[in-house]
Amino acid sequence: MSSLSFRVLSTKVGTVTLSDGTILWLRVAVVDVRAAGFSPFAGVAFDVKAVGGVGIVKVPDDLKEKAKDKPLMPPEPPKEGWETIDIVSIDKAEE
Q: How far apart are CA 87 and CA 58, in angstroms?
């Protein structure tokens, strides 16, 4: 089926605040929309191709200090030393 013509009416970058004080941004984008047949619930069914991205807004200085001598990507995932970080708040990304 062919792609549909659409235009983004609004977009909003989201943020996630973690319990260690780190703040991340979230971005979503609708890349393509195609009619995919009939749905008895909503009429036309759509296939939506979306992509997302995550970036760093802020990392507390004490965390930067702890990580400054660590490799960016260890050759093997560490088996211990992982900490669970809770999500404190979410401001959702929209498009």
A: 15
C-alpha pair distances (Å), 5 with each of 8, 21, 39, 80 = 10, 41, 20, 49
Q: What is the predicted pLDDT for the residue at 86?
A: 95
Distance, in Å, from the CA atom of 33 to the CA atom of 48, rounded to the nearest integer, reads 5
Return d(Cα 23, Cα 61) in angstroms, integer.
Answer: 13
User: What does 61-82 look like in DSSP terms, one character per residue?
Assistant: HHHHHHHTTS-SS-SS--SS--
Single out the residue of 6, 49, 46 nearest to residue 31, CA to CA: 49
**Predicted TM-score (pTM) above 0.90:** no
